[in-house]
């Protein structure tokens, strides 16, 4: 997986097949202090969200912390921090802007949507090859995608109701992996949760969700409390 390859599990065949166990252990251990800092920042702003207001120093740190991740553990910790920071109108707008622009070389909304599309294309190619088995999604990729999707969900949930209507005009990539049996259930769950968040953003996006559910032949459950809103059942 070329898009998220720097963030795969240390020790996987294609990411570190030539690395010794000592160097692998060192890489994992080296990421722990940085992850702890990111977790600490998340805890602080989860308990004191009002500290986000006008906090330029925080966003300077976020810009610094988002650069040059060499494994998926630090990437996931960084994205988890962004999820926490996106728990308010101001935070959601800031996080959306960061991931929409070019603040980071390898982290952004485009990375999320491109990765989903590339895996879909990869699976389609396998299905067209007689006797070929569907390739597995690398654990690092799957966990990074879940972390991205959690950020997406928070940003859409807490974004300004007027501004967020135009933030994600094309959400089709979120549907592309839901029909494949080899996609981990926890990743499918994160995809469904992210999709469900868009239902109340605008009538246009709600209609798009129905269209894509039909297009990809995905099961839908509509309960009496849903008031016409689609809910994707498990597969």
TrEMBL record:
The keyword Transport applies. Keywords: Nucleus, Transport. The keyword Nucleus applies. GO terms for cellular component: nuclear pore. It is found in: Nucleus. Pfam families: Nup192. Belongs to the NUP186/NUP192/NUP205 family. PANTHER family: NUCLEAR PORE COMPLEX PROTEIN NUP205. This is Nuclear pore complex protein Nup205-like protein. It comes from Trifolium pratense.
